Amino acid sequence: MSGRLEGRIAVITGASRGIGAAVAKRFAAEGATVVLLARTQAALEEVDDEIRKATGREAVLVPVDLRQFDKIDHIGAALFERFGRLDVLVGNAGALGGLSPLGHTLPKLWDEVMAVNVTANYRLVRIFDPMLRQSDAGRAIFVTSGAARGIHPYWGPYAASKAALEQMILCWAGEMTKTNVRINLIDPGICRTRMRVQAFPGEPVEKQTPPEAITDAFVELAAADCTRHAEIVQAQ
9-234 belongs to which CATH class? Predict the structure, then answer.
């Protein structure tokens, strides 16, 4: 590994599996102190075990349901007290919500998808904006999807939430142009995740890129020398 993230402090949501876990392990291997957020303590501990075996580093584990928005504020306050800054924020956690005609979508499901994919990320921005400004090179990366663009029948809640996420993050990026913070979105493409299996249950696994294979793009956007800003980056 290149050590491009040596000494950096990185928060990663949805870090217990899939893309989030792969990014967490890669960031740790690159020298970062990783703060891992996900709902399941046991799954976080498995990722931490792998990080310790590979790097000798310990992750900071934060079991949390991001739909409990006030807890995001508490996490931010605790991390500020411990570190005084944040160098990298990766907003990876997401919810598919199922595929169906829009008129058949239950309000509860709609609200859940919007809560995880949009509102939770807004709350992350709100609490971590000041901490990213404290870094000499704050970086924020949010995971989006091709479903945010074009026409995608039956993907209503997910597509709408990712389109909202993109516009929200690009607005924030525009507001941060004159700071040391660089903010981008990343589209992982066809990646081997549980969400991909839910959406395309019959898709051959050989068509799906392993999450570990797309982590280069995350390292590039997280590095202190990254100059990209307000972009939607294709990971593959």
Answer: alpha beta
pLDDT band at 196 (very low <50, low <70, confident <90, very high): very high
Mean pLDDT of the chain: 97
Each domain of the chain, given as residue ranges in start order, spans 9-234
Residue type, 170: L
Percent of the chain's residues with pLDDT above 70: 100
Q: Which among 158, 160, 193, 196 is annotated as catalytic?
A: 158
Nearest-CA neighbor of 147 among 105, 195, 218, 207?
195
Residues 208-216: contacts with CB under 8 Å, at least 24 apart: 209/236, 210/22, 211/18, 211/19, 211/21, 211/22, 211/23, 212/22, 212/25, 212/26, 214/19, 214/22, 214/188, 214/189, 215/22, 215/23, 215/26
Residue 158 falls in the annotated catalytic set:
yes
